Structure formats: structure tokens, C-alpha cells
Amino acid sequence: MTDGYGNINFWGFSPALDLQQTGLAEMSSKLICSIPDELHILIVGAGDFRHVLMTVARRYRHSKKKLKFYVVESALELYARDILFTMIALEKQENMGLQDKTELFLELYGNALVREQSSQYVERMSHELIHMVTDFDYLEEKLPLFDLSALKYKERDFLEGIFKFWRNKEKQLFDISQCWDLRQRQLLGVRYDSKMNAFDWDYNMALIERGGSIVHLKQYKDWRSNGIAFQIREGTYDVPNRTVASGMVFKHEGERYPRRGYWGDMVVSPYIPFGVETEEKSFFKKQNNMHTKTAEDVSEFNVTALFHELMMKEKYELPKVEEKDGKVEDKSAPQTATLEEITEENEEEEAEEKSEVNKSESEENEDKNESAVPEEKSHEWLPLEDVKVIFLPVACTADLVKKAKYKKLFNVVFFSNSMVHHLKPEVSELFADKCSLILETALFMLQLKAEHVQEFVKKTTGLAEATGCKSLEACDDLQDSYIKFYYER
């Protein structure tokens, strides 16, 4: 493994999109055509669930439609993470608050090491996930938006094995710190001893130049060093994040050696999907030509807004900040209590504790002959109406063309830069009569030189035109994360 991108994308290399707005609405305006009431969206190689979550969360902004997502990835570990992150997003308010959901999501999404409580959440959900993947009736009852029936039997078995690994509490099974260091040594070679300078070069000569200046240098270098991107909540990050483990088979002298390790991105960073673009432009304010906020702040806001919109179906607004006596006061911030208030509060707590003790003693006396054990409450998630996610077999794009049920089906098609080579001329048979096509550029592939990024845009544009697509709008090779096309049969 000589490059820093790895062979599996645990996160995307471009910002999250609302696929009803980007591409589809623009195509509808250009062609002056209506959008059908049921949308079929094909997502190939996105690396994560960002486009699905963003599109579903913002569907209230558009006319009511049924949404069907068909997801194709390069590895089953990504399907496992997709389901887990959707479970976090759909946690009910009484089970997990908005801030806790955001912290847990980002921590598991982009960190190599997580807090103990985050690891325990993955362990608890693993039991549910094993039940779901082995019993489709249970899946339909708990998370009916997912459909795994298109997967092969061996792929379902592999998914079950992934969840069983997540459930295992033994830390020595996956020493990600050692994996991270070995990958860094192989990637940097003789530059390893001066790795901070190498990280600084990638940041200043590539990331900033391509629109990632909101990413703070210290945070980027910390992530490159230890794999920890998000530390919103103060705590000890020392437990391996088992959701970023994957298997890989190495060949040596004719023998095959399977190894579990971290084979994902070590250059781009997980800040790109949610941390470099936002509707709240105040995050991009500068002082002395330096950003006052960081990509971690932007990611936290974007994910919080996404979860809020998913639950409340309204736009999320930043807490208002007002000026009081010449000082800035944040209404959302906890206020400092006076000594008198603290004393009164302590007295109230003591009274409540005495009341609870007396109550428990009386209940114990009443029930001393009974030994009933309360049943554990079944976990429930927020329902999503008119949304379906169908996981298709790994890297099956060529096979879809051969199946009649997928012909002329998809209204929106997305290809990542790592799987755009699957965009062959015959893929146009999958496009609906009017279809929008979105291709991810190589803008944030930091190990590519600027001329290679421009060459990539030319090649992918050629692939799209070979399928009969036309450009929806001009693309700036060194500024745009996506190229947009439309297809009209």
C-alpha cells in the first residue's frame, strides 16, 4: 500500500449533497420538465452515507416524493457503517440528545481512537445489527428503510461477521495505533522522521489551495499523526474504533495472507464531507486573515443541523447571541449560579435524596417477598416514511445493466472518483429518460498535482459524454468538487 488513500474509503472526498437540489432541480429548470413523484437514486462508491442523510433530511424543502436509494460500494464494511450511522441519526430524543448524537456520529465517523462510552454504543448496537442482518422480518420491524435482500448470501454472512467483530471487546484484536504508525512509515518512507514537515507541506501546498483553508493546521497535523479528527467532547480517546477496521489479502511468494488492519485514507482527512461547506456563512469569518472557526466547528454545526432537520423538518439556526451591558452574551450558554442559588439547590437535592431513600425503603418492605426482574425495553428508532435504501452487491454496476428491472430506472446517478471507471457507455441504459449525473472530481486528492486534477476532469467528462450525457454547467477544475451532467433520451 504505497498511496495514502488506501483501498477503502471510510469517508467521502467531497462535501455532502442534497441530491434533490444539486443536479435534479437544476436539470429540471434547464429542460423545463417536471420531476416524478418517486425518485430512484443510484449512488456508486460514495464511501459513506452523507448524500443519503443530507437528501433525506432536507426533503421537506421540496415537494413530497418517495425516495429510493440504490447503494453500490467497494466493500461490505461501508454498508455496515452506513447502517450504524443511520441508527445514530434516527435515535429518538428520549434516548439520545442532539448534541450527544452529533458527538457520537463524528467520533465514530472520523476517529481512529474513540471514548469508552462510544465503543460501548457500538457493542450494544452490534447485537441489534446481527439480529437484523440474519432476520429480515426483524429488520423490517425495526429499520424498515433498509433492504438487504439484493445482497448475495455470502455478503450477508460477511456482514454478520463484521458485526460480530464489532461486538468483541478485546482491544488487542485491532491495535489501530500500531496499524496507523506502520502505514505512516510505509507512506512517508525516509521522510518519516520529519513527518510534521511533510504534513505541513500537504496542508499548505495542496489543501489550502483547493478550498480547505477552514481546516486548521494543528487539527490536520494531529489527525495525520494519531488518527483523531474530532474531539468535541473532552475525554480520553484510547479505545480502537472497530468500525474502521477492514480485511485485506496480501500476496508474498505465491502465498496469500489475510490481514485485518486500517486500510483507509491517511492524507485527505474526514473534515472534507461535512467541514468545508455550510449554509451558515458566519463560520467563514476571518480575523487577521485567519479563520475564527475550524472544520471541526463546521462539521459539528452541519451534522447537528442535519439531525435537527431530520427530526423536526425545519431549518436549524445557530443559538442567538445578544449584547448585554456591552458584553456578548450567548443565550444557549449555561449561566453561572450565585452562592445563594447553589446553597438552595443543594438543600433541595438533600431533601429529594431523603425522600427517595424513604420511598425505596417502603417499596423494599412491600416487595420483599417478590423477585421480579424488569424486562429490558426494546430499542426503537425514528420512522422514515416513503424512504427506502437498497444495498446492492459489491461493485455490481456492470451487472445492473443486464437486469431488466433496472433499465431506464434512475433519475439521479452519482459516481465517486474512485469508481468512475465503471461509467461505461452501456450504463446509459440505466438512466431514466431525463436523468441527472453527478461525478466527483479529484479536487481533494492531495497527492495529485494540479495538472493531474485537471486531466482527471477531462477524462471523466469524456466518460460522461460517451454515455450520451451533456454538461449541465461549466466546471472549474481546481475549485469544484463535482461535475454535473444531464441525460435526455
UniProtKB/TrEMBL annotation:
<protein>
    <submittedName>
        <fullName>Dynein assembly factor 3, axonemal</fullName>
    </submittedName>
</protein>
<dbReference type="InterPro" id="IPR027974">
    <property type="entry name" value="DUF4470"/>
</dbReference>
<dbReference type="InterPro" id="IPR039304">
    <property type="entry name" value="DNAAF3"/>
</dbReference>
<comment type="similarity">
    <text>Belongs to the DNAAF3 family.</text>
</comment>
<feature type="compositionally biased region" description="Basic and acidic residues">
    <location>
        <begin position="321"/>
        <end position="332"/>
    </location>
</feature>
<feature type="region of interest" description="Disordered">
    <location>
        <begin position="321"/>
        <end position="378"/>
    </location>
</feature>
<feature type="compositionally biased region" description="Acidic residues">
    <location>
        <begin position="341"/>
        <end position="353"/>
    </location>
</feature>
<keyword id="KW-0970">Cilium biogenesis/degradation</keyword>
<dbReference type="Pfam" id="PF14740">
    <property type="entry name" value="DUF4471"/>
</dbReference>
<feature type="domain" description="DUF4470">
    <location>
        <begin position="10"/>
        <end position="114"/>
    </location>
</feature>
<dbReference type="InterPro" id="IPR028235">
    <property type="entry name" value="DNAAF3_C"/>
</dbReference>
<feature type="domain" description="Dynein assembly factor 3 C-terminal">
    <location>
        <begin position="146"/>
        <end position="471"/>
    </location>
</feature>
<feature type="compositionally biased region" description="Basic and acidic residues">
    <location>
        <begin position="354"/>
        <end position="378"/>
    </location>
</feature>
<dbReference type="Pfam" id="PF14737">
    <property type="entry name" value="DUF4470"/>
</dbReference>
<keyword id="KW-0963">Cytoplasm</keyword>
